[in-house]
Amino acid sequence: MKKRYEDKMLSIRQSILDFLVPLKTTGVVDKDMGEDIVVCLEQLLALHKEEALIEKWFLVDLYSVPESIRNEMTYSKERVYLESLANKIERYFGMLLAGEEPTDRIPGTPRFI
After folding, report:
1. Are 49 and 2 in contact (CB under 8 A)?
2. Per-residue pLDDT of the chain in tens (113 residues, 90 and over written 9)
3. HSE-CB of 84 using CA atoms within 13 angstroms
4. Residue 90 in contact with residue 66, Cβ under 8 Å?
5. Domain boundaries, the chain
């Protein structure tokens, strides 16, 4: 399980680089790559429930991503998408620290059966 978890973190790191480098150098917004980051993060959150620790290098990388995206928003026509992506990554970062995942029940909200 540990190997799968580490592979997922490395995959996310590469996806982030593949998204940010064109965004920062040419202003190109690759929405498919952005969605790939979100899907990979959701998979990592599910895997993380079984892990006790998070690699520090991964946290450092992930922590800086939303701000990097927001810094490019002023130069892009895709402001709404970039803001949405930055917010989602930021929310998933918090969930990673809390050991939660997007499908968890939100406290204080009724359950519908």
Report:
1. no
2. 577 778 888 999 999 999 999 999 999 999 999 999 999 999 998 888 777 788 899 999 999 999 999 999 988 999 999 999 999 999 999 989 888 888 776 666 666 66
3. 9
4. yes
5. 2-98
